[in-house]
Each structure stands twice: as structure tokens, then as C-alpha cells.
Input
Amino acid sequence: MINIREVARLAGVSPATVSRVINGTASVSEEKRQRVLQAIEATDFVPNEVARSLFKRSAKTIGLIIPSIRNPYFTELAAKLDELATQRGYRLFLHNVGYDLDQEWAALQQLEAINADGAILVPSSNDDRADQRELSIPLVVLDSDFNGPVSAYLYCDYYQGAQLAMEHLVDCGCREIVCIRGPQSTFSGRSRYVGYRDYCLEHHIRQRVVDCDYDFNAGLAMTEELLERYPKVDGILACNDIVAISTYKILHKRNIPVPDQIQLIGFDDIAFSSLISPELTTIHQPIDDLASLAMDLVLRQEERAVKGGRHILPVTLVQRETTKRKDA
Amino acid sequence: MINIREVARLAGVSPATVSRVINGTASVSEEKRQRVLQAIEATDFVPNEVARSLFKRSAKTIGLIIPSIRNPYFTELAAKLDELATQRGYRLFLHNVGYDLDQEWAALQQLEAINADGAILVPSSNDDRADQRELSIPLVVLDSDFNGPVSAYLYCDYYQGAQLAMEHLVDCGCREIVCIRGPQSTFSGRSRYVGYRDYCLEHHIRQRVVDCDYDFNAGLAMTEELLERYPKVDGILACNDIVAISTYKILHKRNIPVPDQIQLIGFDDIAFSSLISPELTTIHQPIDDLASLAMDLVLRQEERAVKGGRHILPVTLVQRETTKRKDA
DNA sequence: TATTATTATGAAACCCGTTTCATTTGTCTA
DNA sequence: TAGACAAATGAAACGGGTTTCATAATAATA
Output
């Protein structure tokens, strides 16, 4: 591969001059600048980004670590963050860790080792980890509140979201509401469940819970089990949209009318939830705001962020076709 | 940030020795090795990956460039490639270029500049590009057959897929089949359409075509237009599953029974297509095989690949609930 | 015991773009 | 015209692991 010294030799100047032409960091005589430009053209020279970032200590890269690339929620988040990063002249380095804590940690180390300018982490688990030594790059954590040396936390008000959902289901006339709760090791799974639990406690409703992972197959299987365990269910609060969609599939297959016999509500408001028929009632998360704030926090902490600051975004209920007020 | 010389100083050895301990590239006396390990432990030293890959000329990274991270087909492909890369000790660097050719080219240059070990590209357009100078890293191109200096091409037999789909729709009794064709600048859009066209020509069927981008909103809008233009339609061949799902949504909203009045078939077999109700009949692409072959090709071209070699994978029809043989 | 083969180890070069610093050339002011 | 100052430019150092090469020390063979 051609390098800057080679180009310099060809143009009859020093490497420093070539560098100055490329980066516009200092003035160069028009004559030499032309010679350099020509030599670059002739050789298809592309500066080695590795050498550059070794010296600069910046790779113009932001890392994003997500538990699963197969979950549309994370994918939509990644898409938005990618846009934002590109806009600001950064690359987004997406790490998919498949809910594996070792991989997650490795990804973080790696980002540090490649001189990334910051990292955005959606933890695979909210449990305390011993391994959290301080990183040398800014780290903002999404969808979690675990204790660690991070620059900022940022999440949506899931607790409130679950309460909103319960309120709505009760308003719609549901009496036997089952919560399909997500993994209790995750923050989203736990706080959504706690929102449900507290609502039940406050309103003297018996809790009905079924555990489920955040994926299709689990959703399918756990819905079957739910129907077995709670035959009189008339409302379901699913831990996310993926699971809600799986749930609907089973209900549909069994010819259980939704929302007439069972009302269903999801969580996240992924793009698909308004695309399926019937459209899914769900708790909307402001993904765009989330992404934009996360990017701000990681890029210029000094402005919006306090060290270790917590930012909580509100969620809203969007009613579509899987819930309906019973006017009995 | 702590560096190797610092660690060496602390351990009372040379940087070379530290490097040897870390990489196991040469034997080191047990005593010094312990001192080094201890110093690493004490300082939380993580070798700077940038410096390492500058020297090694390998970043243990392979790049994946896709047109859109919002399309589940690409996402599933990325997920699989990510698994494969991780298995083999590489990172997958995902570049989302949003169907922008400039960004695509920039991504390619960037991968070259960071010493990536290879790149897998799903082109945003199949048109000839002038810019295709030879890259210094192996490049395998998916879902395209445009002419350029690449290591290998790899795609599914879309032409055959479209014919399979048509055959099936005709078998099911459809007489007025409309093709919602994808962007004709893409290889998938074009070859799927050509498969449809040739089938029509061979069987003396009048072509009915509507153009559509690969996304939800376009799918929604174009289905409306389709129904306007071809009121007697009884079969729809959608350019991909996303569009097929949008199409179903409109049909459902208008109370047009599927498959009884209109039969519908998609393309890609993304995970969602079997999760919605009714389940979507579609053309299945062997994503896992595709990913696995792509990874092989990019990583060890010498074995499976001929320079510029073409690899074409077969597709299959999977009949689900949006098509049905009419036993009239 | 002399000699050769090993093993251990550090100094220095290397990868390559960037930047500092000193020098040279040219310009402007007194 | 001398002195002061600005612009242009290259040599060299830098960033941080890795590897080569030479040397020193130890072990094995004659």
C-alpha cells in the first residue's frame, strides 16, 4: 500500500507538506499543493486511518453495544444513532453481543483499545458487575441503572409506562390482567414488572405473572402457557412488542377475538407494531429523543451531563386496535 | 492512558518482553513473566489496538456495508455474519449507508484505511459505477452482479424465485397477477421483476406492474394505487416481505379477504413473515448459507473462490397462509 | 574443559500520518 | 539598506505495540 512518504517523494516535497495539503492545517504554496494533489490522484492514495488515529488519539468513532441485533427496538435505535453520528462526522461502530456479558465487556475494552471517542451501552444485564473498572472513554448507559463508573445514565420511564398500560387496560374493562414479564436481570424487564406489581398492590388486584424472554419463540411458548394457567384472562400486558406480536399470533390461531375477548398491549412501539393487523396498542418510547440525547451526552458531556447524571424520558400510551373500551 | 513502556518500567523489563508475555510469541522466564503479569494487573493495562494493527496491518475486522439497517432482511444477514465473524476471532464492522452511493464508497475507503481484513458489500445500486478502483482488501459483493474489481459475487436466484412465485400463484388459480416491483436500480428489484416478466411472456399473460421502494410507507401507498389501477387483481407478487406486509395491511383495512379474493406472496422470508397473522407465503432465501459462504469467501478466498467468481444460491417457495389453491 | 547449540532479553527499527521546531526565503517597515 | 516579521517548508520526534537482530547467559555436546 502506498503511503504518505511515497506520495511526498513523487511530488518532490516532504511528508509534512503532503499532510498539510490533505488536512489544510497550514498554508502551502500553490505550486507544491498542485504537485501534491496530482501525486495523490495518480497513486489513489488514501491516508491510513490507523496511523492517523494512533497519533490523534481519536478514531472519530462512537461505539454502540447492544444485546441483540435481532430485536427491532435496538435496530431502530442503532439506525437513529447511526444517522446522528454520521451527521456529526463520526462513525458508529455497532457491537452485537447476544446477551453475553463477557462479549459485552470485551466490546467495551475493544472500543477503548481502538481509541473510540465514546461508547453507548445497552447492558445485557442490570445485575451488579465486579468488572466495572473506569474506562478511559466516555460511556453512556441506556436502559439501565446499574451502579458503575459511567458518564451518564439514560432511560425511559418504564415504571410509569407499565402503570399507564394497566390504567388503560382497567379503563377498558379488563378484570384479569396477566403480565408477561421480561427477563428480570434486565432493567427494562424489571422496572416494567415493578410498575405492574405496584399498580396491582395499590388497586388490590391479584398479580398474574408469566416469565418470558425477549424473543418470538419464547413469546409463542409462554402465551400457550399463560392460557393454560389463566384461562379467564381478559387483558395481557406484554413485556415488549415482539412478545405482544407472538401473543397475538397464538390468540389468533385459537380464534380468541382481540380485543373483544382479550385485550393486548405491548411495549416499545417498534415500527412493526403499527404495521401488523390489527395494529398493536403499545407504550411508545421516544427513540429519536433517546438517541439524540445519548449522542449529545457521549459527545459533549460537559454541556448537558453531570458525571453519573441520570436522565429519564417520559413514555406515552398509544392506543390502536388491540385494546378497546368495553361499553357493556 | 497507560502504555506498554510504562508497564515494562514497572516490571523492570523491556517493552519487548511485555509484548512477548501478552502474545506468547516467545518464551520468557517464569520470574519475569510473573512480574509482567502483575504489572499489567496493577495498571489495568489494555494494549492499544490501534498501534497493534498499525504494525500488523490487520485489524481483525471485517466490514459489512448494507443499504439500510431498518430492513430486517439486512439485519438478519448482519446478525448471522456477526456470529460467524465472532466465531472466527474477527469483529464485524457494520456500515449503514442509507442507500447513498457516496456514503457507500466512503465506507469502503474507510474499511481500507482502517486495515480491515475484508469487506462484504450489499450495494445500494446495481448501476455501473465509475469509481470502482481496485481495493487493497478482499471484497465480496452480495445481491448484485455489477461489474467491478471484486473478489467474488454472491446472490440468490431471484429470477428463479419470481418464476416459482408466479407458478404458484397460477397454480392457485390467479388470473390477474400484479407485480409490485422494487427499485430497478437494485439487482434484487430488477431480477425479481425480470423473472416475473419472462414468466408472463412465456405464458402469454399480460404484465401488470406497479413500482415501489423497499419500505413500509411506499408499500402502503403503492398498494392503494395498485387497487385503483387494477381493480380486478386476484394475485399480488410483492418485491419483498416488508412490502407484502404493508400490502396485506391495506387489503385487511379494506376488508378484502386474503387469500380468498386476493392471494399474496412476498420475498425474502424474514422472521416476521411467519409471525404475522395470517402467515405470509414467500420466497425463502437461505440467509444462513449466504452469510456463511460470504464469510468463507472474504476470509480465505484461496479455497472456495475464483477471482471474480460468481456464486448463486437457490431459493425455495414456502407456502403459508396468504395463498391457497382454489378448488372451485 | 573447550565448543556449540539454546534460551532469554533488550536496543532499536518499524508501521505511517501528524505536529513541533528550526531554518530559509521573502516582505514590510524604519 | 538594515532590522523585524511573516510565510513556506523540511527534519525529526511522536504515538504505542511488534519484531528483528545482536548479545549475554546457560545448557549440552565433544
Remarks:
- Chain A has three domains: 1-42, 61-156+287-313, 158-285.
- Chain A has a mean pLDDT of 92.
- Chain A touches chain B through 50 residues (CB under 8 Å).
- Residues 13-17, 20, 26-29, 32, 51, 54-57 of chain A lie near DNA strand D (CB under 10 Å from a C1').
